[in-house]
């Protein structure tokens, strides 16, 4: 039983990272209808930026802040310069644009930093152990992951509930034309949404990097799982994405413990396909009717 | 001021543009290519030409699905893989080459049919994710199912043989012939009832259904035909080296196929040919810049989407119009 | 100088479909002006053009607010200068609460005015205050219409453009809404009222335009319009006297159809 709890807890920690990435995917999809395949690449780039800044002698906190700023500008700028125009070319053009970005960013990162892996250990990877209950432990790193994720989720909830910009973002998700009629500059708001989403992804990258190695493809598998999490939640629901992330993390860890660790990525996609087949609107989603 | 000669009717206008001249040009090009491959080309050029021919087939397969029927697939390299592995296994066990290739295409088509089923309920973004999932799952399965696929090490591929062993030159000619067949066949398909049904689904699914296009049949058919054509290319690809392994058929290869048809032009056979030719050639000439290959391809794609949404074919049409109206 | 005036507006959709063919209208402070016309006449298009919601339009013509050209400003700036809109079909933010909907209406207004604006809206629509925390999507149709009007009022507009505010409402609710519109005009807000319910609109308004196929075919004060035979027949549904010959009817219908 304790072992089971232990696995669930570890699964939640893994799932937190997926959730952070998935929230960004959902934000971007809801605001601008873009499925962002370069989302993980942006996170990877931001993590490299933090690493480089730290190498240059900057403290970890300023390095992290610098990475977050870069992520924000990258996300917002991408929407303004590239995606907004690609949207005019239809849905294929949009998907291909983010795929092209994925290739460019990962390619450039590979050319700049090489594909040999680097270690990037920081605060969160202190080797300590936190006792959660008798016989159930959490590594200090996983504890950090969960705390940071929960704090960000809470912050985001407050932001969307109580700030002007947050409410306006929800209004835009809800009815873009009406929001424009109220005088909201919708495109600017989309860009901010992209920026916030990219910052969340950057945090996910920074949280994850001590567990994996720092290399250009470090965010690829997590991105795939975040897609699975987002679909689990219905692709348009932020609570759904969080729940989906945690669920996926737990299922994956349990499957790894009791069945096989070999097919983890396939398990994620089996889940996606099952959800899509049985409940395309996601676990929490509401069915929407598309008008002709 | 002089005006260009009046074109008297629409058919004449089209004939200037399309069919007859263009067919003559294509036939001429084909003969040139055959002579080049058969006699003149150095070995490496023969190899590259064969790859071009095969990727033309694969790109046409994907374009049929995405350009004509409007369904996105991020997993077409998986169909390449299915065709390749099926053929390799059969061929190793002694099946004749063309039989193995044909069965490879059919098995890929069957998988295409299966992947197409969820497309009946899913729209754009979900389909992108589920085909991506298919790609990743096939990739993992090929790597793990060692008894069948040889795992990450892959499988050895015996030399191509139809009664006698085929030299690379002869094999190249075979591939070019098959590519030409596929071009003619898909060209006719797109002008048939089926092709029109695909386009109707792409342009407005609900309206197409209301007009009597059976979505269940035509959508799964689009997936199956597309996957079979791509599987055919996959099966023929194996003989370009002496072994295959999963790293030949990754997500990046799927993306490369997508780039080919985006750069060439969606919903265009000519576009698929141009896109595949350009990309394969780039791959084999930019080897010195290996590190920047993905960057270059991605950049091209971005520029195409921003400035020439119709791809190379759009450019080509514009150039043709320019010459037609010359000197104005 | 009028508060809002549009001069010879010409508007195209997709570059070649012309929907407005030289429409001119005037609006004074505190005035209610009705715009009537059959389906597809271009009434909604007129409102969308005034709000700057159609990219790169009007093709020709000018829009002036307090004497200043606004036709090349974006929607946000027009709202900031005192234009507000209650769109066709209400278009409230269904997932947001009533309060959040109202806050969105005040997006361009100074933040220190928010409370005063809220109070003013609640004065007109006490029912919204009762339902302040309710999700707008769960409001009744009449309440949603009130919310849409209240939301537009949150920017303290000088001109309010209303696109069929009584659409789909029970007569008694529509009447309630029209009473409130009259109160708004008394407070000096100019109202441009697009309506299918011609009778009620003409009773409320002091001036009216009749729009057909993108042209103003008749413009007069409402007393004149109410007395006009054609308006009576085609908008108020009055029965014609026997003496009218079929031939005349046909000719007249051509002008209106
Ligand atoms: N986005 C658009 N693209 C192309 N044509 C449009 C568009 N919107 C409206 N139209 C056309 O413009 C014309 C005027 O439409 P509009 O909505 O302004 O009419 P309306 O007077 O508001 O009609 P109703 O009384 O039915 O609301 C119609 O013929 C309509 O088909
Ligand atoms: Mg209308």
Describe the structure.
The complex is a heterotrimer of chains A (292), B (328) and C (257). Chain A has 292 residues and is mainly alpha-helical. Chain A has one domain (2-219). Chain A contains 11 helices and 2 strands. In chain A, a hairpin with a 2-residue loop joins strand 1 (129-133) and strand 2. In chain A, helix 1 (2-32) runs parallel beside helix 5 (140-162), helix 3 packs across helix 8 (186-208) and helix 9 packs parallel to helix 11 (264-278). The longest helix of chain A has 31 residues, at 2-32. In chain B, 74% of the residues lie in helices and 2% in strands. Chain B has 15 helices and 4 strands. In chain B, strands 1-4 form a two-stranded antiparallel ribbon. Chain B has a two-stranded antiparallel sheet with strand order 2-3. In chain B, helix 2 (19-40) packs antiparallel against helix 8 (168-190) and helix 12 packs across helix 13. Chain B starts with 9 loop residues before the first helix and ends with a helix. By secondary structure, chain C is an alpha/beta fold. Chain C is built from 11 helices and 10 strands. Chains A and B meet through helix 3, helix 4, helix 9 and helix 11 of A and helix 6, helix 12 and helix 14 of B. The complex binds adenosine-5'-triphosphate (ATP) and magnesium ion.
Features:
heterotrimer, A: 292 residues, mainly alpha, two-stranded antiparallel sheet, 2 strands, globular, disordered C terminus, C: 257 residues, alpha/beta, six-stranded mixed sheet, four-stranded antiparallel sheet, binds adenosine-5'-triphosphate, binds magnesium ion
Largest sheet of chain B: 2 strands, antiparallel
Sheet-strand content of chain C, in percent, reads 15-25%
Mean pLDDT of chain B: 82
Distance between the termini of chain B: 11 Å
Helix content of chain B: over 70%
- Gross morphology of chain B: globular
Return Rg of chain C in Å. 19 Å
Number of helices of chain B: 15
**Count of helical stretches of chain C:** 11
